[in-house]
């Protein structure tokens, strides 16, 4: 079954000097354990073409069902040094949500149930 | 009885909401309000302001906040912990004294700012090598514009002993704004690593304001009220167990996902989160949905801290400018490529090439690079051209080369209402370390 990362995970990215980090958070043990085996640094490096030009490091946080990817050198200097439009890697997490994955059929029970009614309504304020 | 203190954050960076701290002061049931105004580059900006005008160099938003809320701060006996002092905390304190006619007691924490001492330290043989790339500080020492030590949280606790309304510092660490009051209230010692680690995690979760309460959350559509988004509050006990929540009646949301996303924000190696007070292991933390809108955090492990403090040095490394032009279909991509080439060619004709330049198409590839496939010519896009060089005059010449394209380049260029690109100094960051034994912090009470 083909899905996107956003169907099973949330992400948050930001800067660590010259590098960005992308935290990926899963909701279920099964999806996290699958991700540990299948979402490799090589896969991330290949997907983030033009961004991940150097080493990608992965840390595991099983207690939070989360992975932390460090995209070394992706901010080309970082901070005020960088000429990148997104010099702090704020958007890298959103970009990763669009990563296509081939997952077991049994994952249909874990897919995030996006509800249309969420969108198009006014802020309650 | 188990003592609990409630600590909120109403500011994640200089430029964050001016309403959030005001609303927390007015409405929330809290003991402490923390306000974080500093990022790495903020110190350099403040130092530059100070060099031009000795009356500046701090977050003046904070002075405005105290002016409009001092009566409530006094009547509620609320304590505010902040790094708003920037590079000039004494002046910031004096301004607050003036506008509050001395009704507000302030304890200033100082000792983080070593911009006047660092060259002396370098001459005396201290290395200050860059911890990211190992380079020697010799090559940048003449361009240093700010140097601040991330000082520990025990000085914040010490400052609270004088019963001030405000503890005002410069480069106190972001989590330290939370750790300081915990040390003071619970009388924790330097060896109580697990408790210090827990408070550091609490500080990390709330230091970016609404980023743990539904801001920047992947499933943003679940948040049905961004307009009045609540800023975070933690309630913590003397064992370091704490809950994360937000004030009643505010927007946003708190759940395990919003909190976990923030736990991972700007994270390096999760087993070794270094603070001046403790080394935290983020792979130990347990989160629990206590009830709707409350996440409790437990089991935080910590080890003794390193024997160095981190120092944020900033230096001027050149000049840069960024210019933008919008171009429309038909042939938006081809025209955008042509336009960028014309600009660079015209500069080349005058003998100008840059140390570094970059062309991006906003709406097409400026954030996604080559990651996503685009199979259709966009309706429109914005060309963003950036250049960087040691020579200021080259950058000034660049800034005059964009507008002419509107009439002497390909058709359909617009979006130049902002005028010529602004020439900016490039402030570069140099992270380094200093031995704790060399650092002296002190407190002055106003």
Please report the distance between the alpha carbons of the first and last residues of chain A.
Answer: 39 Å
Could you tell me the number of beta strands of chain A? 6
Largest sheet of chain A: 4 strands, antiparallel
Strand order in the sheet with the most strands of chain A: 2-3-5-4
* Order of helical and strand elements of chain A: EEEHHEEHE
Overall outline of chain B: globular
Task: Compute the average pLDDT of chain A.
Answer: 93
Number of helices of chain B: 12
Biggest sheet features of chain B:
10 strands, mixed
By secondary-structure content and strand pairing, the structural class of chain B works out as alpha+beta
Mean pLDDT of chain B: 96
Describe the structure.
The complex is a heterodimer of chains A (125) and B (446). In chain A, 41% of the residues are buried. In chain A, strands 2-3-5-4 form a 4-stranded antiparallel beta sheet. In chain A, strands 1-6 form a two-stranded antiparallel sheet. Chain A is an alpha+beta fold and 125 residues long. Chain A has helices at 29-38, 41-47, 92-97; strands at residues 2-4, 9-16, 19-26, 56-61, 66-71, 100-102. The longest helix of chain A is centred in the first third of the chain and has 10 residues, at 29-38. In chain B, helix 1 packs parallel to helix 3, helix 6 packs across helix 7 and helix 7 (176-186) crosses helix 8 (193-206). The longest helix of chain B is centred in the last third of the chain and has 18 residues, at 332-349. Chains A and B meet through strand 2, strand 3, strand 4, strand 5 and helix 3 of A and helix 2, helix 9, strand 14, strand 15 and strand 16 of B.
């Amino acid at each position: 079954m083909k899905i996107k990362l956003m169907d099973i995970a949330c992400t948050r990215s930001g800067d660590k000097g010259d590098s960005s980090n992308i935290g990926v958070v899963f909701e279920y043990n099964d999806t996290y354990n699958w991700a540990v085996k299948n979402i490799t640094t090589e896969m991330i490096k290949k997907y983030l073409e033009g961004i991940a030009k150097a080493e990608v490091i992965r840390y595991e946080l099983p207690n939070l069902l989360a992975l932390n990817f460090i995209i070394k050198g992706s901010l080309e200097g970082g901070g005020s040094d960088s000429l990148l439009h997104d010099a702090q890697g704020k958007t890298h997490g959103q970009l990763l949500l669009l990563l296509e994955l081939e997952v077991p059929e049994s994952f249909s029970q874990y897919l995030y149930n996006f509800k249309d009614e969420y969108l198009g309504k006014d802020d309650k304020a | 009885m188990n003592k609990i203190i409630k600590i909120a954050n109403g500011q994640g960076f200089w430029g964050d909401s001016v309403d959030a701290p005001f609303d927390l002061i007015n409405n929330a049931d809290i003991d402490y309000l923390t306000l974080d105004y500093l990022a790495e580059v903020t110190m350099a900006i403040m130092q530059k302001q100070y060099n031009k005008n000795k009356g500046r160099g701090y977050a003046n938003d904070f002075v405005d906040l105290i002016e409009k809320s001092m009566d409530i701060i006094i009547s509620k006996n609320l304590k505010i912990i902040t790094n708003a002092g920037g590079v000039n905390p004494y002046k910031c304190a004096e301004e607050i004294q003036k506008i509050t006619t001395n009704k507000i007691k302030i304890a200033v924490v100082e000792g983080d700012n070593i911009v006047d001492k660092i060259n002396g330290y370098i001459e005396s043989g201290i290395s200050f090598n860059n911890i990211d790339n190992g380079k020697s500080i010799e090559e940048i020492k003449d361009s240093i514009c700010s140097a601040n030590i991330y000082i520990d949280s025990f000085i914040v606790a010490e400052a609270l002993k004088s019963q001030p309304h405000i503890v005002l510092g410069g480069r106190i660490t972001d989590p330290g704004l939370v750790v300081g009051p915990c040390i003071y209230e619970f009388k924790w010692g330097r060896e109580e690593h697990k408790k210090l680690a827990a408070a550091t995690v609490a500080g990390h979760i709330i230091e970016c304001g609404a980023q743990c309460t539904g801001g920047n959350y992947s499933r943003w559509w679940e948040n049905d009220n961004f307009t009045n988004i609540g800023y975070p509050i933690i309630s913590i006990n003397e064992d370091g167990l704490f809950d994360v929540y937000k004030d009643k009646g505010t927007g946003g949301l708190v759940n395990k996902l919003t909190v976990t996303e923030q736990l991972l924000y700007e994270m390096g190696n999760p087993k070794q989160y270094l603070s001046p007070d403790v080394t935290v292991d983020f792979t130990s933390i347990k989160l629990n949905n206590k009830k709707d809108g409350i996440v409790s955090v437990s089991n935080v492990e910590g080890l003794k801290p390193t024997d160095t403090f981190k120092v944020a040095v900033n230096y001027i490394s050149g000049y840069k400018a960024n210019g933008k032009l919008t171009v429309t279909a038909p042939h938006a991509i081809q025209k955008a490529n042509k336009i960028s080439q014309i600009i660079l060619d015209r500069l080349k004709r005058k003998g100008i090439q840059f140390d570094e330049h970059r062309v991006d198409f906003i709406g097409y590839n400026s954030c996604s690079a080559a990651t996503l496939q685009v199979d259709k010519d966009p309706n429109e896009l914005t060309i963003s051209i950036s250049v960087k060089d040691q020579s200021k005059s080259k950058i000034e010449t660049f800034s005059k080369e964009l507008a002419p394209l509107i009439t002497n380049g390909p058709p359909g260029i617009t979006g130049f209402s902002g005028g010529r690109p602004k020439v900016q100094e490039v402030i570069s960051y140099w992270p380094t370390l200093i031995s704790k034994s060399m650092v002296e912090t002190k407190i002055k009470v106003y």
